[in-house]
Structures are given as C-alpha cells and as structure tokens.
Amino acid sequence: MLQGAIIVPYRLLALDLDGTLLDDDKTISEPNRKAIQAAQDQGVLVTFSTGRMYCSALRFARELKMNVPLITYNGALIKDTAGKVYQETSLSLPAARTALAIAGEYNIHVNLFIRDELFVDRDDEWTERYRRSSSVMPQIVPNLEQVLAPGVNKVLLIGDEQELIPVRDVLGNKLADLAHITSSNPQFIEIVHPDVSKQSGLSYLLEVFDMSPEKVIAIGDNYNDLEMINFAGLGVAMANAPEDIRAQADYVTGYNNEAGVAQVINKFILS
C-alpha cells in the first residue's frame, strides 16, 4: 500500500468494463469516476480486467489516470498504461486455425486479434457494431488465414445467440485442451489460450504486488468474469449479470447504468 495511506481491508479493485464499469452508452459515469478516484486516494490499486483489446481499454485507463498493469483479452495480455508488457500468453496457431475453419463452415463473423491489432474479413453489421463499441478501426482482409501469425491474443466469434449454440458445441469438442472458451455476451464466443482467464491475470498481478486474494475485490457481469469473482476475497456481480453468475458472487451490487461499481466502493472501501 502507498506510504501514509489509510489502511483498508481491500487493497486492489479489479473491474470489468462492459456491463460493469461502463454504462450502456460506453462511458464512465460521474459517480463511478469519483468513487474510483476516492479509492485511489486511499491507496487502493484500481485496474481493469476485461475481454477488450488493450488499445480499447487504454483510453478508459487514461481517463481515470491509472498507472497500473491492465488485464486485457480476458487475461491474455497484461500491460500497463506506459506500454510495459508484464505477461503475454498467445493462442496457438493450430487452435486459431481450427477456430477460423469452424467459423467459416458456419459462416460466422470473426474478429481476429493479433498483437493488439484487429482483423476481420468482412465489413458487415458486426464489424460496424464492434467498431462503434470499441472505438477501434479493424483491418479488413479477404482471408484471415493469410494474416494468421504468432501473437494471437484472441479469436472472437460474433453472431446471434441461437446461431452460436451449435458452433459453441463444435468448438468445445474440436479445441478441447487447446483453448479456453468463454463469453462476455450472448452474441460472443471468446477463444484464448487454455491457461488464460481473468483469474489467471489477477493471480499474476497479485504476485507482482505481493498480495493475497483476500485483499481483492473483483466486479463483473458475465461468464468470463466468473473465475475472478470466485477467486477474489470479495467477488461481486452486477445486478444485470445472469442469474447463475449472481448466485455464485459474494455480493450483488446495482446495475451498471446505476453506478453499481461506485456502490461497491462506497460500501466496502470508503466506509
């Protein structure tokens, strides 16, 4: 903890972004902003633990004047706001190639992330939606196999929930031990290295800061948050999280559009 800071039970706050810290309009509300600043003023380390790209998460970290490693791509890339890489765990090329082939078979949109760059093979509605929500401009290439190279951060399949159900089953069978498959949204299937999760990212940070899980609050709203919610000393689910996520959390806070993050900070850190 920072020298001279007030001693509080929790020393690190790990925040998911979409559906958690961010309102539905993809902004940070003023109550959340003020609460985070107050927590930082008390010496609490505040970081992100998100499925987003590093470059997409970075703008929010700068907005909050963070100077800590950020857990991005569901834990595949841990990198601070100054650009220092702490840990990078890439999906293998065979796993990525299999995911691309299955997506092609089912005609599912793919976002391919390589070394924090986004590649797509079509400029469709899903490309436009992702562009708007992430503020990242993708590179459109005719064949994703042609750009496939070492350093795959994540493969993201995007589609309507019902059309992804059979794809998810096939991916689970084909990739088995080659990947960790999760979701932050019913319209997403997220594929990363088998050893990668938000828990693995958080566990790595705790080693960096010589801290135990009991000192951590982790807040999230979806299935890719579940491991870190169960791992943290205080695992918090948003009110807008699916019921089975809320059932496994230590505490359920308010909705993301109602500054649920600020409610947690005020109750468990600032009080």
Q: Your description of this structure?
A:
By secondary structure, the protein is α/β, with parallel strands linked by helices. The protein folds into 2 domains: 12-88 and 197-270, Rossmann fold (3-Layer(aba) Sandwich); 93-192, Hypothetical Protein, Haloacid Dehalogenase-like Hydrolase, Chain: A, domain 2. Helix content is 37%, strand content 21%. The chain has helices spanning 17-21, 30-41, 54-63, 93-105, 125-134, 161-175, 198-208, 226-231, 243-248, 260-270; strands at 12-15, 45-48, 69-72, 77-80, 85-88, 109-114, 117-120, 139-140, 152-158, 180-182, 188-192, 216-220, 234-237, 251-252. The strands form 3 sheets. It has a 6-stranded mixed β-sheet with strand order 8-7-6-9-11-10, with helices on one face. Strands 2-1-12-13-14 form a 5-stranded parallel β-sheet. Helix 5 links the parallel strand 7 (117-120) and strand 8. The longest helix has 15 residues, at 161-175. The two termini are 18 Å apart.
Give short descriptive properties of this protein.
271 residues; alpha/beta; Rossmann fold; Hypothetical Protein, Haloacid Dehalogenase-like Hydrolase, Chain: A, domain 2; 2 domains; 6-stranded mixed sheet; 5-stranded parallel sheet; 14 strands; 21% strand; globular
